[in-house]
Inverse folding.
């Protein structure tokens, strides 16, 4: 009689472990469960918070350094050109007297002389005509 | 196995709820099967027990990932397999003698009358003597009823490779067991 090996093998099963093994395994697994109880919930947000705080501190530091550098530049400019500031404010008041809006007066006063040609500023031209 | 799918869903829900009672359910449903697979792989009941224990400790530690696994059975078997491979490495280094694995196959309930002790011993011996990679596929296919797709995913091989390993295993068994009337 010919027997099919596949069918015959399906009549067999792999050995089950002893019943004592279940208690032993579950006890160590429960211990491992309790050891990391709550860890996924608590530690991950803490790490995230730490990373965010570090990034914010770094960003604030960069901004502070940039701000200090900008202030220094301004101070140096004021020291190098003590008269230019005064001249600008005089120009502003003069242009305002001429009937220019405040914002235009400031803009023109801040431009260097080579840019102060009426043809390049049609808007200003129109304003003057008004 | 549709029953597996149902249990897997319940188990994953319990993992997501962080319910420690899930460990018992995983053991009842998968523990015994994992043990059989580990014995067939490691051919040592004591090593299989150790790896099974390590597997369950890892299940407890990695419960968050397990709760999200696509195929719980494949995930658990893969976890066990990786730990068994580590055990293999340790054992080779220690040059440990393998004993007590011969009886890991037994006759299922209701089929006892159909098997003679001589034939059962012959089949056990033939299965144990199969090349490791063929034996592993055979055990997963016959006793765990995994599909070739699942076996391929678990062993990280192609489905064709899994199928051919299975075919070769059956051919070898047929040859070995010709004397018992296998075709």
């Amino acid at each position: 009689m010919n027997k099919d090996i596949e069918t015959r093998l399906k009549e067999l099963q792999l050995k089950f472990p002893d019943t004592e093994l279940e208690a032993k395994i579950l006890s160590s697994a429960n211990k491992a469960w309790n050891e990391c109880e709550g860890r996924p919930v608590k530690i991950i947000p803490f790490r995230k918070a730490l990373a965010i705080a570090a990034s914010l501190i770094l960003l604030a530091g960069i901004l502070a350094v940039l701000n200090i550098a900008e202030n220094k530049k301004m101070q140096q400019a004021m020291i190098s050109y003590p008269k230019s500031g005064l001249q600008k404010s005089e120009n502003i008041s003069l242009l305002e007297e001429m009937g220019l809006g405040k914002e235009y007066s400031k803009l023109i006063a801040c431009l260097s002389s080579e840019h102060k040609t009426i043809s390049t500023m049609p808007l200003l031209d129109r304003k003057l005509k008004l | 196995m549709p029953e597996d799918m149902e249990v897997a869903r319940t188990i994953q829900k319990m993992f997501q709820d962080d319910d420690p009672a899930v460990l018992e359910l995983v053991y009842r449903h998968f523990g015994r099967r994992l043990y059989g697979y580990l014995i067939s792989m490691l051919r040592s009941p004591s090593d299989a027990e150790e790896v099974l224990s390590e597997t369950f400790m890892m299940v407890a530690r990695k419960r968050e990932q397990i709760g999200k696994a696509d195929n719980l059975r494949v995930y658990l078997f893969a976890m066990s397999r990786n730990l068994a491979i580590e055990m293999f490495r340790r054992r080779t280094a220690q040059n440990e003698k393998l004993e007590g694995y011969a009886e890991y196959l037994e006759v299922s309930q209701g089929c006892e009358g159909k098997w003679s002790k001589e034939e059962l011993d012959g089949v056990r011996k033939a299965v144990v003597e199969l090349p490791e990679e063929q034996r592993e596929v055979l055990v997963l296919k016959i006793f765990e009823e995994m599909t070739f797709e699942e076996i391929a995913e678990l062993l990280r091989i192609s489905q064709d490779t899994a199928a051919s390993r299975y075919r070769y295993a059956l051919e070898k068994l047929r040859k070995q067991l010709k004397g018992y009337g296998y075709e």
